[in-house]
Amino acid sequence: MTQMESAHGSQISTSSNLTKALERRRESIARGTTARKKSELGQFMTAAPIANFMSRLFSGLSGAEIRLLDAGAGMGSLVAAFEREAVNRGAVSISAEAWEIDPEMVPHLEETLMELAASSAFSYSIKDGDFVWAASRDIALRKPPRFTHAILNPPYKKLGGKSDERMALRDAGIETGNFYSAFVALALLLLEEGGELVAITPRSFCNGTYFRSFRQLMLVRAALTHAHVFESRTKAFKGDEVLQENVIFRLVKGAQQGNVTVSTSTDGSFADIRERSVPFTEVVLPDDTEAIIHLVPDEDCVARNEMARFTNSLEDIGIGVATGPVVDFRLREYLSDEPRPTSVPLIYPMHFENGFVIHPKTGKKPNWIDRNDTTEKWLMPSGHYVLVRRLSSKEEKRRLVPAVFDPAKIAGEKIGFENHVNVFHGNKAGLPADIARGLAVWLGSTTADEWLRRFNGHTQVNAGDLRALRYPDLETLKAWGRKIGDTLPSQEEIDAMVAQRGKAGSAWER
């Protein structure tokens, strides 16, 4: 055995021991950190299997002189995994800049990086200031990019619209409302051309107007080459109250966009990983000004095979959708459990039953809202509407839960739709009855639900998400609607109706 081979074997042994020690420390710190502090900092530490997987996504390591950025470094798990991967692949040197704002975490980070520096061509600096502020300033001052690689598990926390960090980001040309997207945008801009970035973040940036500017910046400045989706919302960060689905993705700054590798696993063990290569036109649909990112990991996904037959936007078929206008806590004095002379129905998700709205119902929410000069502008005229619940529980089977509001079943000239429902309407009034019922069939289908899951990675279904769906034409909706009685069909019957759409001589079309 040569001296070099012996040194390399020693390095592997040292790295393995460090990984085990890091995992023990990570688990101990996680157990000892209160949920309140995790929420305040928005930071969840990276387990070793996830850190290792992220490190393996990098390509330009052999023979490289690496300048690495880890913003939100925690105890250094990502830097350690990257260092091991880079050394094993023949990197010449690694200089790491690690940012960590939590003073209780900095000693753990220092310990990790010191151990790395003792056993390889590795050097480091620790920054314990505000990364957003410092990086935004450097970008605003047009300082040259200084990193070749970035690896990130950034904090998950909203940025106030008038916060100092938000103002600093705007000076750097970045518009976003969450720390995690701010960290990714800043790290990307700090990379040299051809530099690589791998991050694990919530999946919520893939859709919605809230992250549109961030998506556009990311896709203009870099090529998206890999995205890994976890099927379970709870298992990537076991033991932490993470309510959003996570995604790991790789960007190459300034590269030409090609196919995207989309992979999936049940959890962070990657024991059942599957992957396929997807044309970019399936990930971001051509001419989509919202730049919504669709991630479908499986070849046999129902949505991918079925959705090509449904191509209409809501605008194409003359239907609108909006969040229910009644914000109950702002109008609390006008709400009541029992009807009053001026009352009109108030509809919550609790009123959904078998695909229709049933009112009144006994529950924790009021059934009625007074109609008066204050509330009038928040009420809608009675008519046929389709409602979709905005919130789902962590592991609920469906995201799309529709219900038809039938004015024949619920009396009232005006209706109050509460803010926890989305309302499909026709120019702010009711829809034709057959179209409303057919639309509920579509929204209740597995195809529509799986299509939504291509880009929706959190517990909310907002009006913007529903606008991003594609829909059947009006004649198809009418045909489905004519077959519906007082309850929606079973899931199997709905999916059979959707599957038959467009087949010559289908019984439901006659």
What is the oligomer described by this structure? single chain
Helix content: 25-40%
* Secondary structure tally, helices: 16
How many beta strands in the DSSP annotation? 20
Query: What structural category arises from helix and sheet content?
Result: alpha/beta
- Estimated share of beta-strand residues: 15-25%
Identify low-pLDDT runs: 1-14, 239-243, 502-510
Biggest sheet strand order reads: 3-2-1-4-5-7-6-8-9
Q: What characterizes the major β-sheet?
A: 9 strands, mixed
Compute the CA-based radius of gyration: 26 Å
List keywords for this structure.
alpha/beta; 9-stranded mixed β-sheet; 16 helices; 20 strands
Topology record:
Layout: H1 3-32, H2 35-41, H3 48-56, E1 65-71, H4 77-88, E2 93-99, H5 106-117, E3 122-127, H6 131-140, E4 147-152, H7 164-171, H8 179-190, E5 191-202, H9 212-221, E6 222-230, E7 246-253, E8 260-265, E9 274-278, H10 280-283, H11 302-306, E10 320-323, E11 335-336, E12 343-347, E13 352-353, E14 356-357, E15 368-370, E16 380-381, E17 385-389, E18 402-405, E19 414-417, E20 421-425, H12 433-443, H13 446-453, H14 463-468, H15 474-481, H16 491-500
Parallel strand pairs: 1-2, 1-4, 2-3, 4-5, 6-8, 12-19
Antiparallel strand pairs: 5-7, 6-7, 8-9, 10-20, 11-15, 12-15, 13-14, 16-19, 17-18, 17-20
Question: How would you sum up this structure, described in words?
Answer:
This protein has 510 residues and is α/β, with parallel strands linked by helices. 32% of the residues lie in helices and 20% in strands. The chain contains 16 helices and 20 strands. The strands form four sheets. It has a nine-stranded mixed beta sheet, sandwiched between helices. Helix 8 packs parallel to helix 9. The model is unreliable at 1-14, 239-243 and 502-510 (pLDDT under 50).
